[in-house]
C-alpha cells in the first residue's frame, strides 16, 4: 500500500512537471511564431509559412518550401491590404534569390531584378514605364554600378542600347 502511494505521488509530480514544461515550450513557440507586427502560421501541408499583419489579419509574407528541405524557393511579400508587391525566387536553392519581380497595385509586373551570376548583387534592373516601354539597366563588370541602359519601345519594336557615360556627357 505504501509503494502504491509513493508511485501515485511520483506520477502526479511527473505529470505536473511535464505539464509545466509543455506550457513553457508552447510559450517559446508562440513567441517564435509571433512578432511585434505579424502573426505566423504554417499551411496545413507545412509547405508554406504565412505571415499576417496583426492589425488587419491580411497576408503580409509567404515563404514557400516546395520540397521540404528547409530552404524557401519563393518568398512573396504583400502590402498592408494583402496585395502582392514582390516575389523572390531561388530556383537552384543555394540561398541566393536570383530573380525578383515587383508588382503594381493591380498585380502587373512593373519591375524585376536579376542576379545572373548569383553573387548576391543585382546584374539587371528592369523597369516598366507607363507607356508600356521598358528600361533595363545592366551591370556588366560586376561592380554594383550600372554601365549600360537598354530602352525597349514595345510599340515599334525598337531596342536602343546606350552606355551610361554617354548619357551624361551632354548638357541638357
Salient structural properties:
2 domains; 21% helix; alpha+beta; eleven-stranded antiparallel sheet; 172 residues; Outer Surface Protein A, domain 3
Annotate the secondary structure layout.
Layout: H1 2-33, E1 38-42, E2 48-53, E3 59-64, E4 74-78, E5 84-89, E6 99-103, E7 109-114, E8 124-128, E9 134-138, E10 148-153, E11 158-163, H2 164-167
Antiparallel strand pairs: 1-2, 2-3, 3-4, 4-5, 5-6, 6-7, 7-8, 8-9, 9-10, 10-11
Overview of this protein structure:
The protein is of the alpha+beta class and 172 residues long. It has 2 domains: 1-33; 37-167, Outer Surface Protein A, domain 3. It has 2 helices and 11 strands. It has helices at residues 2-33, 164-167; strands at residues 38-42, 48-53, 59-64, 74-78, 84-89, 99-103, 109-114, 124-128, 134-138, 148-153, 158-163. It has an 11-stranded antiparallel β-sheet. Strand 2 (48-53) and strand 3 form a beta hairpin. It is elongated. The mean pLDDT is 87.
Amino acid at each position: 500500500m505504501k509503494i502504491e502511494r509513493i508511485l501515485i505521488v511520483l506520477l502526479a509530480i511527473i505529470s505536473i512537471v511535464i505539464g509545466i514544461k509543455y506550457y513553457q515550450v508552447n510559450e517559446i513557440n508562440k513567441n517564435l511564431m509571433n512578432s511585434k507586427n505579424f502573426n505566423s502560421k504554417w499551411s496545413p501541408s507545412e509547405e508554406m509559412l504565412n505571415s499576417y499583419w496583426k492589425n488587419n489579419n491580411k497576408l503580409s509574407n509567404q515563404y514557400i518550401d516546395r520540397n521540404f528541405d528547409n530552404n524557401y524557393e519563393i518568398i512573396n511579400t504583400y502590402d498592408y491590404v494583402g496585395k502582392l508587391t514582390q516575389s523572390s525566387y531561388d530556383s537552384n536553392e543555394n540561398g541566393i534569390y536570383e530573380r525578383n519581380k515587383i508588382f503594381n497595385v493591380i498585380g502587373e509586373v512593373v519591375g524585376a531584378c536579376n542576379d545572373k551570376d548569383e553573387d548576391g548583387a543585382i546584374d539587371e534592373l528592369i523597369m516598366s514605364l507607363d507607356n508600356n516601354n521598358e528600361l533595363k539597366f545592366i551591370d556588366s563588370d560586376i561592380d554594383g554600378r550600372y554601365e549600360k541602359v537598354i530602352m525597349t519601345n514595345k510599340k515599334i519594336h525598337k531596342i536602343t542600347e546606350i552606355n551610361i557615360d554617354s548619357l551624361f556627357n551632354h548638357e541638357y
